[in-house]
Amino acid sequence: MRRRATTWVLGLIVLVGTRPVASAEPFTVIINTKVAGKAIRRDSLSDIFLGHTERWADGRPIDVVDLTTTSPVRESFSRTVLEMPVLGVRVYWTRTAATGHLPPPTRSSDDEVIAFVSSHAGGIGYVSSQATLPDTVKAVAVE
Questions:
Q1: Nearest-angstrom CA–CA distance, 139 and 3
Q2: Beta bridge partner(s), residue 128
């Protein structure tokens, strides 16, 4: 059943096309420097944050972190990348939790997200576009 739903969603994406994410978004997607790449497709990013994709191309586990549900940066990220408001994401995870999949852990600040991503070799998260990034993480473009 899940495979049918995934195929249907992928077919819909092909028919409708994907909408590019504007470069002036109030968030920056960050990954650990051990993760290869400089850009990620919006639909791939959505799959990661919704738990559909659990490993990077090299087989390394993906460690996702979210900002808290009250963060305006999270609201922007959720609407732009996941194409639903934070409330919709919460409902999604409530339903998905019954299957044993849990939502990503949350952090309350950019610095905490950066620390999480820095300390996990497969780490990925997002921060406000004004955040200062250390050498332990890198920004990736969303296409």
A1: 32
A2: 27
Q: Which fold has domain 20-142?
A: D-Maltodextrin-Binding Protein; domain 2 (3.40.190)
Strands 123-128 and 63-64: parallel
**Residue-range domain boundaries for the chain:** 20-142
pLDDT tens across 103-120, in order?
999 999 999 999 999 999
Rounded to 5°, the CA angle 40-44-13 comes to: 120
CA distances from 116 to 32, 70, 96, 137 (A): 9, 19, 24, 10
User: With contact defined as beta carbons under 8 Å apart, do 29 and 70 qualify?
Assistant: no
DSSP letters of 87-111? HHHHHHHHHHHTTT--PPPEESSHH
User: Residue 54 to residues 71, 98, 101: CA-CA distances in angstroms?
Assistant: 24, 18, 11
CB distance 110 to 127 below 8 Å: yes
- pLDDT of 60-90, one tens digit each? 999 999 999 999 999 999 999 999 999 999 9
Q: What is the pTM of this model?
A: 0.82
